[in-house]
Write a structure and sequence with these properties.
The protein is α/β, with parallel strands linked by helices and about 200 residues long. The protein contains nine helices and eight strands. The strands form two sheets. The chain has a six-stranded parallel β-sheet with strand order 5-4-1-6-7-8, sandwiched between helices.
Length: about 200
């Protein structure tokens, strides 16, 4: 029996994102240090910048209020990602993951769930090992064709422009929790809303 994307979404407890091209538009910006001259170690050094959309950030608050546990897995190591993950209060943060299934297996063990209860949002071939086996495989609108072919759902918006929010709303809508999660966020007297909130990561 072939399950629909909505059927798969109803099982999801953990939602994981790739970063570059998913939570960002995939562009990488570098600001050289020391005037672009090599440091004492003979290497060039600089700061890496990425852009994140506030729509995805608010969506992560909604996801938590809807009962989802959220995190990211990325190949690159970036202080910018660490700061954003802190700001979003993400439960699972795995950087420097050349083989992302290792991180997935660690999360499955930590949480005590199976693959069919895990959703992953990716955009490129490095994400295929997860997309091919997780319960709900989601590709962004800007994803490579191979990622889209492996996906159960493709977001209306590209990475860095609301794809993360699309994934969250699709899952919570399938679970019948989206409207209640949004109303919980808007309730000024709801302590859970304050706990789920973002923008207080202590940057």
């Amino acid at each position: 029996m072939t399950l629909s994307a909505e059927d798969r979404a109803r099982r999801i407890q953990v939602l994981l994102f790739d970063v570059d091209g998913v939570l960002t538009d995939g562009q990488l910006y570098f600001l050289p240090e020391n005037g672009g001259r090599p440091g004492p170690d003979g290497k060039l050094h600089g700061l890496e910048f990425k852009g994140f959309t506030a729509h995805d950030g608010l969506g992560i608050s909604i996801a938590r209020l809807g009962g989802l546990r959220v995190g990211l897995i990325t190949k690159r190591e970036s202080a910018t990602v660490a700061i954003r993950a802190q700001d979003l209060k993400l439960e699972f943060v795995y950087q420097g993951q050349h083989h992302k299934m290792s991180a997935v297996n660690d999360i499955l063990t930590r949480v005590g769930i199976t693959l069919d209860q895990l959703a992953f949002v990716g955009d490129d071939v490095i994400d295929l090992p997860i997309l091919r086996v997780c319960g709900l495989a989601i590709a962004t609108a800007n994803a490579r064709s191979q990622a889209k072919a492996a996906a159960h759902y493709i977001t209306p918006n590209p990475g860095g422009q609301g794809a993360g929010r699309d994934a969250i709303e699709f899952i919570l809508a399938a679970q019948g929790k989206l409207d209640a999660a949004i109303e919980a966020l808007l309730d000024a007297d709801n302590p859970a809303a304050a706990a789920a909130g973002i923008g207080s990561g202590g940057m």
